[in-house]
């Protein structure tokens, strides 16, 4: 397997959000996307599986299609990822956009590698092969009590297959994510998700600013100015200003996914 290229190989910034169901990934991604819009920074939102048309079909097969053999499941996730990274994520990173991914390779490793019987390293290697070695520049692990997250999501409607697998699975999953975070402290930031939305968001914002400084990315303007590059300090200033305006406006509405 080839080694991943250095994170600075592209001008944009690749941020993934990880954690079990209900920890607040979608909520935090939407807050961050709103701030990037307010700061006029080019960005895209993407989810796995299902970030492309092909991915939507794969997602349907995976989540509602009955039993799927573990290796078939791993390959389906990897197929979705290969297509999604090649057609959406890499082009965005190359033009200097921020990519906000709702789950990425760590979910595969944690869900399929640890909680099922495939080796975590094999699942990781498969994913890196599929993506030609693309790792996020920053991974935000929203870590929280699975019972609390479960209570947040009840009332969402029928549970899908992964959601039904119970408390033991959720506890094991949480441990797996934490183990992954410990193994790569330079990539991960672990955020305590058992707090009000705005407190979690403050930590997420801080992690993003730190990652932008660390990677020295060359982000691009969004909207009408798409393609025009922003300096590092100009980004930080516009982004932090948007964050301050947001806190001054008081707690936002709770976001539903
Ligand atoms: N920090 C929080 N405190 C209380 N409720 C939250 C918090 N973050 C998210 N929620 C609510 O919990 C539910 C699940 O959040 P969501 O962002 O969809 O989680 P995920 O995408 O990780 O499954 C939503 O109804 C959301 O409004
Ligand atoms: Mg979600």
Explained architecture:
- With 257 residues, the chain is an alpha/beta fold.
- The chain has one domain: P-loop containing nucleotide triphosphate hydrolases (Rossmann fold).
- 52% of the residues lie in helices and 11% in strands.
- It is built from nine helices and five strands, in the order βαβααβααβααβαα.
- A five-stranded parallel sheet has the order 2-3-1-4-5, with helices on both faces.
- α4 crosses α7.
- The longest helix has 25 residues.
- The chain is globular and about 50 Å long.
- The relative contact order is 0.20.
- The C terminus is likely disordered.
- Magnesium ion (MG) binds next to α1.
Query: What is the strand content?
Result: 5-15%
- CATH T-level topology: Rossmann fold
What is the count of β-strands?
A: 5
The residue fraction in helices comes out at: 40-55%
The total tally of domains equals 1
* CATH architectural grouping: 3-Layer(aba) Sandwich
Could you spell the SSE succession in H and E letters?
EHEHHEHHEHHEHH
Flag low-confidence runs. Answer: 253-257
**CATH homologous superfamily grouping:** P-loop containing nucleotide triphosphate hydrolases
Largest sheet properties: 5 strands, parallel
CATH hierarchy, class? Alpha Beta
The total of helices stands at: 9
| Cα end-to-end separation | 37 Å
Bound molecules: adenosine-5'-diphosphate, magnesium ion
Rg calc: 18 Å
- Strand order in the sheet with the most strands: 2-3-1-4-5
InterPro entries: P-loop_NTPase, Thymidylate_kin-like_dom, Thymidylate_kinase
GO molecular function: ATP binding; dTMP kinase activity
Enzyme class: transferase
Pfam family, one: Thymidylate_kin
